[in-house]
Specification:
Layout (H helix, E strand, L loop, with lengths): L9 E2 L2 H7 L5 E5 L8 H12 L3 E4 L12 H6 L4 E5 L17 E5 L2 E2 L5 H13 L5 E5 L6 H11 L23 H4 L6 E5 L4 H9 L4 E4 L6 E3 L1 H17 L5 E7 L7 H12 L4 E7 L4 H7 L6 E4 L4 H6 L9 E2 L1 H8 L11
Parallel strand pairs: 2-3, 2-4, 4-5, 7-8, 8-9, 11-12, 11-13, 13-14
Antiparallel strand pairs: 1-6, 9-10
Helix pairs in contact: 8-12, 9-12
Length: 345
């Protein structure tokens, strides 16, 4: 297969896809927003190699492997759904009813490397704090950099830890699953390989000690403690607002991987056992307007069970007039332990 990929920073595994799609006539492609700009390259490359194939690209928002466009693919009579940017969802509670539809995951591994100067900066930051055993985690795009960073830190005298969470790749984190961090019991710190604040903030809220981010795109090394302090204060304030709530709105997710019956049932028990009342609401894509449309004096606070990042990312800096909590936050409030912060579940 002749494909010029030198200018593309990610490995879309086109050779593998060509083999897996032989004989397939219609495909739906799903990409995260940050990768959508490469959709033309992917479509053109696959079309040249496969010939008589119709490829459609979903332009809807993609929230992760919890949001597979299965219904859309079936409606369009697609034979395969190619989901770029993620691995199979680790917290799936309900079996995926895909029928004859083939689901193919392409992690889109980053092709770059970590600059030596960035590792020097990281090593200096760890030494200043007297830290020797950092747990290294990464988003799936940067998972291949974990081994590289581990070796570079070992050469500098550190003893990094890489944990296998079982349901994900070794060292992998996603926005709602930080098992690779939580299971690193011997770590005195965490180093996150990722761009942006989204995943590194999640790690910070899941780990009590220092968290550092190394950005493979800019080479920047950041200390997340100030960010954690700022966000944690706001989340604790939101929990404090909910302390006297007795009427709860439980928002149940309806996306492929966001229906979490075990969490919904636990919240129902926790609320009912305390003589409180709850109402159940269903939502596929939750927004502030959705909540305002159903808000009334019958509800004191809301709990979002679909995605713990919605309260964190959408309702922290711009809070609703009523508390909007994650399941973990709500359980701490119901148990009367507001000082105990648990994230994400």
């Amino acid at each position: 297969m002749s494909v010029n990929t030198e200018e593309i920073p990610y490995d879309f595994e086109l050779e593998r896809l060509v083999e897996e799609l032989k004989g397939v006539k219609k495909v739906l492609i799903q990409l995260p927003d940050g990768l959508k700009k490469y959709s033309y390259f992917i479509v053109d490359s696959l079309s040249r190699s496969l010939g008589n194939i119709e490829i459609m690209v979903s332009i809807d928002g993609g929230y992760g492997a919890c949001d597979l466009k299965i219904s859309e693919a079936k409606l369009l009579n697609a034979e395969a759904l190619i989901h770029f940017g993620h691995t199979q969802y680790s917290l799936q509670e309900v079996p995926i009813e895909s029928g004859k539809l083939r689901i193919i995951y392409v992690p889109a591994f980053y092709r770059g490397s970590i600059p030596e100067s960035s590792v020097d900066d990281l090593a200096e930051a760890l030494k200043r704090e007297g830290l020797q055993r950092p747990s290294i985690v990464a988003t799936v795009q940067h998972i291949r950099l974990i081994g590289e960073l581990k070796a570079m830190l070992e050469k500098r005298g550190f003893h990094p830890i890489v944990t296998s969470p079982g349901r994900l790749l070794t060292g992998q984190i996603i926005g709602c699953d930080y098992s690779a961090v939580i299971l690193s019991k011997e770590a005195d710190s965490v180093v996150v390989i990722t761009g942006g604040l989204f995943h590194s903030l999640g790690v910070s809220l899941s780990f009590e000690g220092p968290v550092f981010q190394i950005d493979p795109y800019s080479g920047r090394v950041g200390d997340l403690r100030k960010d954690k302090e700022r966000w944690l204060k706001r989340r604790l304030a939101e929990m404090y607002r909910a302390r006297d709530s007795s009427r709860w709105g439980i928002i149940v997710g309806t996306l492929t991987g966001q229906y979490r019956p075990s969490i919904v049932e636990r919240l129902k028990r926790e609320i009912s056992s305390r003589g409180m009342k709850y109402y159940l609401f269903a939502s596929s894509v939750l927004s502030k307007d959705n909540i305002l449309n159903i808000d009334s004096e019958n509800i004191d606070a809301y709990i979002v069970t679909s995605c713990p990042r919605i309260p964190i990312d959408d309702f922290t800096e711009s809070p609703l007039h009523k508390p909007v909590l994650t399941p973990g936050e709500a359980i701490s409030v119901l148990e009367g332990r507001i000082e105990v912060y648990r994230f994400p579940w």
